[in-house]
Structure to design on (148 residues):
């Protein structure tokens, strides 16, 4: 085998290895986000949006199968959850006019990314991954307290 053939083989090997590594890293990221997201949802969001994600009629809109979540850009959902939401919203044909307060600062940007990823990938919602970096760009509150 001549040098250029060897180089081509080696390059192909490196590319394949990188592809495998990045895929499994993303897979792991998502699994970790889903796990932490479920914890944050249970500890915080569930009080209002309920364990089923269905919310409460006239008071708390559903996050399960929400056409609002489906139709809005990811940045809007990050903004709503992190910075709060008030005024009239229509979710699955029902009007809500209430207040969601900003995500408390004891939840880190990683927690916010995890819980939004969890909601995007649960109850028939349309998927997607949110990173802490995306949260950081949009979240307005003071830098959250770092957890160990
Ligand atoms: C104290 C109650 C409360 C908590 C806790 C809460 N929300 Fe909300 N949420 C609301 C209310 C009320 C609205 C609608 C606000 C309005 O009427 O403008 C809303 C709206 C939303 C919406 C947009 C509308 C929809 O249902 O699709 C999303 C997405 C959402 N919340 C996600 C979350 C997530 C994720 C958490 C946890 C990090 C959370 N909420 C915690 C009360 C709450």
């Amino acid at each position: 085998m001549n040098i250029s053939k060897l180089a081509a083989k080696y390059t192909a090997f490196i590319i394949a290895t990188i592809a495998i590594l990045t895929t499994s890293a993303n897979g792991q990221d998502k699994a970790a986000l889903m796990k932490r997201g479920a914890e944050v949802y249970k500890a915080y969001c569930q009080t209002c949006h309920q364990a089923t994600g269905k919310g409460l009629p006239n008071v708390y809109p559903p996050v399960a199968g929400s056409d609002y979540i489906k139709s809005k850009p990811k940045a809007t959902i990050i903004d709503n959850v992190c910075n709060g939401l008030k005024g009239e919203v229509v979710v699955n044909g029902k009007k809500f006019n209430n207040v969601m307060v900003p995500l408390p600062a004891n939840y880190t940007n990683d927690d916010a990314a995890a819980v939004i990823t969890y909601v995007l990938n649960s109850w028939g919602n349309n998927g997607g991954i949110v990173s802490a970096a995306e949260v950081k760009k949009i979240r307005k509150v003071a830098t959250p307290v770092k957890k160990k």
Summary: The pocket of heme C is lined by residues 44-45, 47-49, 60-63, 66, 68-69, 77, 80-81, 85-87, 89, 91, 96-100, 103, 115-116, 119 (CB under 6 Å). The mean pLDDT is 88. The domain at 34-138 is CATH 1.10.760.10 (Cytochrome Bc1 Complex; Chain D, domain 2).
